[in-house]
Write a structure and sequence with these properties.
Number of strands: 4
CATH class: Alpha Beta
Mean pLDDT: 94
CATH topology: Muramoyl-pentapeptide Carboxypeptidase, domain 2
Bound molecules: zinc ion
Shape: globular
Largest sheet: 4 strands, antiparallel
Structural class: alpha+beta
Distance between the termini: 27 Å
Radius of gyration: 17 Å
Strand order of the largest sheet: 1-2-4-3
CATH architecture: 2-Layer Sandwich
Number of domains: 1
Order of helices and strands: HEHHEHHHEEHHHH
Strand content: 5-15%
């Protein structure tokens, strides 16, 4: 709320587009993408022809923008995907894709503002840039103190157990790939920038 109030002072309506998601909700997103009922996007935000992919290729394609159920940071209650309500109320559709946050995009000014201010309010961007796993998601903000504790507490076996009980499409492939997904998509994220040490550098 403090971050939202500060954004409002500078003319932005910082609004959550998506926040807490439980395992069941993430599994529904996964199922619809794996069964090609919802589009899968590549790193540039262009839709992929999922029908031409093997099951394993489809898993990797989905994981660019959608976390594995059980491995989503949105399960923790610490993550929000944000938009600028000023642009949304003016009619901008929300895709959460790069064209919105790139220079000239509908949310680009909000994201420049966030880059200058979010650390002071205890947030960071875990998907600040592509690191070989999740694509860059500047709209995805994380409340650092609590999410760092959650990330430390998470173990791959917890995810495997949830997946074994879920009858997820592609589940056997996912379980085989889980050690790589764990390293590449769950552990391989940006750490918070320490606000006080950042200030002392000035
Ligand atoms: Zn997100």
């Amino acid at each position: 709320m403090a971050l939202r109030a500060a954004a409002a002072q500078d003319g932005f309506d910082l609004r959550p587009f998506s926040s807490f998601r439980d395992f069941h909700t993430q599994a529904r997103i996964w199922r619809r993408k794996f069964l090609l009922e919802k589009p899968i996007f590549d790193q540039s935000g262009a839709p992929i022809d999922g029908g031409s992919l093997t099951e394993e290729e489809r898993v990797w394609a989905i994981l660019g923008y959608s976390a594995l159920p059980g491995g989503s940071r949105h399960h923790w209650g610490t993550e929000i995907d944000v938009v600028d309500g000023v642009a949304v109320d003016a009619g901008a559709p929300v895709d959460l894709l790069p064209h919105e946050t790139a220079p000239g995009g509908v949310f680009s000014e909000l994201h420049v503002w966030l880059g200058e201010h979010l650390t002071k309010f205890g947030f960071h961007r875990p998907y600040d840039q592509w690191r070989g796993g999740m694509f860059a998601e500047p709209w995805h903000l994380s409340f650092s103190e609590v999410s760092e504790a959650a990330l430390s507490a998470l173990e791959p076996e917890m995810i495997a157990e949830a997946l074994r009980n879920a009858a997820l499409p592609g589940g056997p492939v996912v379980l085989r790939l889980l050690p790589t997904i764990w390293e590449r998509h769950i552990q391989n994220v940006a750490a918070p920038i320490n606000a006080s040490s950042a200030q002392s550098d000035w």
